[in-house]
Amino acid sequence: MRVLVLGATGYVGSRLVPHLLEHGHDVVAASSSEPRPDRFGRDDRVDAVRCDVTDPAMVEEAVADVDAVVYLVHSLDRTDFGDRDRVGAETVAAAVAARGVRHLVYLSGLVPDVPEDELSAHIASRLEVERILLGATDGAVALRAGVVIGAGSTSFEIIRQVATLFLVQPVPTWMRSRVQPVAVSDVLRAVEDALADDGPRGAVDLGGPDVVAYPDLMTVCGSEAGLSRVRLPAPIAPTSVVGLGTALATTAPFHTVTALIESLRHDMVCRPGATWEPRSGGPLLGLEEAVRRALTPRYAGPEGGLASDPGWTRGIPLLDLVPLPASGRAAARLALHRVRSLLG
């Protein structure tokens, strides 16, 4: 197929493009920034283009002559992410319908089993975008993923940083909710399955084989990093306060952190009977192995970090040479990030 990947330079997109090439597809790699063909190894099967999903003319041009669209655009780093993501979804859905594109795959988020008026703004927006895109073509699928495990993944990096920074960590009681993480390599497999003519359709949940509480996920991250941490219950801790504290204690973009923290109040697990199963029949990657790969320096698989990942997710090589304990190194990294942010 000829596949248009919208958000090709983001975390999942930067790993999906080479995955699609390995499986014989041609790719139109679209991002909101100026195209950099060298980012994808100058492969002549990749057309790198600029496309703002809220611009109808750009979208119309990008969608022309493709067999499938993979939609990976999210705007959590903005305060108006809900409005922007709605406009982007409507623009792309209209172009897909007008062009008669056969397949549309959207990487959505797991939706907790609660009334919609109790959903966080982040999950409510994902659900709204999902419904818009599913109405564009009969061959549309929304893959609902929770925490995606891999170096450079926003949700994983926030959890990893929090899990390794403090020796003693207060954990709000409402964070005992369950989560079903999924390795990024399995996300890529699910997208590939969704592009098949006989692949899944509609809203499909995407999760790995392990269901854990958030503190246990933090424990796995700490253990795989060889760190021992003490976690104490914090009965009184509003989500707004926790969001602010987490944003200050990590290098992640402020609005992204606060939006994601609001989603931790409910169980984020797959629905029985509505969960993706690999067409190949192969097993899903377990949580501990996925985290181990993500924390292995220079790991070459999808869970490994890339030079193109956001700067806030990457370490500082010179800092690794300084003989500091893990907490001290994490604190120094955070301080240097804050200084660089102030200096522009």
From TrEMBL:
Signal peptide: none annotated. Residues 7-110 form the NAD(P)-binding domain. GO terms for molecular function: protein-containing complex binding. It comes from the Bacteria. It holds the Pfam family NAD_binding_10. This is Uncharacterized protein YbjT (DUF2867 family). It comes from Nocardioides cavernae.
